[in-house]
Amino acid sequence: MNRADRQTLLILGAGGDLTARLLLPGLGALLSSRQPGPLALVGSGMDDWDDERWRSRVRESFALADASSPETEAVASGARYLRADVTREEDLRRLLDACEGPPVVYFALPPAITERACRALIPIGLPEGSRLAMEKPFGTDAASAAALNDLLAQLVPEDHVHRVDHFAAMSTVLNILGVRFGNRMFEPLLSGEHVASVEIVFDESLGLEGRAGYYDGAGALVDMIQSHLLQVLSIVAMEAPPTLGAVDVRDGKAQVLRAAHVWGDDPISSSRRARYAAGEIDGRGLPAYADEAGIDPDRKTETFAEIVVAVDTWRWAGVPFRLRSGKALGCPRTEVAVTFKPPQRVPAGLNCHDRPDRLRIGIALDAGRVALELNISGPGDPFGIDPATLESDFGPGELPPYGEVLKGVLSGEPVLSVRGDMAVECWRVIAPVLQAWRRDDVPLEEYPAGSPGPPDVAGG
Predict the structure, then answer these.
(1) How would residue 48 be classed by pLDDT, with cut points 50, 70 and 90?
(2) 322: closest CA among 337, 302, 340, 341?
(3) Is residue 148 assigned to a domain?
(4) What count of other Cβ atoms lies within 10 Å of the Cβ of residue 352?
């Protein structure tokens, strides 16, 4: 195989948990689907590994995805590992020289190290056709995200930058497009004329799970709402794009984010934060977040965050979007819930309860469902109205989220990645809330691990 006919996936941070647990299994699933074509795999990190140790890691991770095929074995057996400090020019030159064809550089690194590596790449330059992929968060605020965009623009064109949000690659989230735009019965009703509110919720039973080093500096607001749920909101609220191409989809999502802001421009009344105390989940004791190893309790990092957002477009003006995520909760809930307004008038004599019609779209990581809650005449009295639910499972996608991510990165299709202006807008939306929380204008509440959350939290 001619070197120029192949492309190389160069993973910086090859020894990390992200690479082993998500990135390589996703690659294995992608390769087993007979995609993306001839590929060389190069790993790099500060670990003192050799090629065999790296190949063993690759095979172990492929096995996590039950990925076993001639394609996976060819990539694993040819994988190379180079120990390097990616903030040093000479080490980066050595890594690029090891690549076959235009490299796809995947920064499986902390954001600060990623930025330093990109700065070190500028005097070196990258071969034409190179692509960059990097993990959230993109910057620490709107200004730093814009500065990072300027830095990346010195290396490759914007459509060669893949800011990874695996939520946007989840089949359950992508199914929102099908529900919205593939059904005439829903799309005309999804507007402020008929919708009372929208909730986008990702409540999970998992606690810190060894992520203290990153999570204590981020918290639920940045880790989930800024990085993921605002992207989900942009899919829920976007206008129908002409095509599902990258330009059309990302333009539609960016328009929503530009129109979004904290409800009433009041971050105090439109946000809530809390963190978990000691408790029990599924028979397993969990210490208080503040007592977890590696946590600085004086930081007041939240494990539960909720904000209410307005989207000032013609379609959604006046509709509150409630975005929420919490850890160590006893009632996991991962869904988009659209609550419709009540009927204009219920005829006298029709015994109707007060439960509203609701469309629920599950966004669980592994599988989702769509459910329509409505009112029908139940058994017995035909004038008595009872609630009923029509539902169907989506089932898992063909590829796991990181398989979809890598499919887009390796094929050069950025439709599932976050465009630079969108990354800036997400920081802008939450900036007033971050400022209010840092001033302690919003109290840090507490809830026992395994409970539904802070007192009086809406259960949906």
Answers:
(1) very high
(2) 337
(3) no
(4) 14
Whole-angstrom distance, CA of residue 240 vs CA of residue 249: 9
Mean pLDDT of 274-281: 94
- Kindly state the DSSP code that residue 424 receives in the 8-state scheme: H
The reply to whether 23 falls in a domain is: yes
Strands 279-281 and 284-286: antiparallel
Prior bond of 36 cis (ω within 30°): yes
Query: What are the tokens at 83?
Result: 């120990």
Q: How many domains does the chain have?
A: 2
CATH of the domain at 94: 3.40.50.720
Rg (CA), the chain: 23
Give, in order, the Cα–Cα distances in Å from 131 to each of 155, 364, 433.
9, 30, 34
SS3 content of the chain, % helix, strand, coil (to 5): 40, 25, 40
How confident is the model over 180-209, as pLDDT tens digits?
898 888 888 999 999 999 999 999 998 887
Residue with token string 């659209």: 338
pLDDT digits (tens, 9 = 90+) for 220-249: 999 999 989 999 999 999 999 999 888 999
Question: Domain span at residue 437?
Answer: 168-448
Concatenated DSSP letters of 171-219: HHHHHHHHHHHS-TTTGGG-STTTEEEEEEEEE-S---TT-HHHHHHHH
Catalytic residues: 228
- Residue 194 sits in the same domain as residue 127: no
CATH code: domain of residue 250: 3.30.360.10
Answer yes or no: do 190 and 127 share one domain.
no
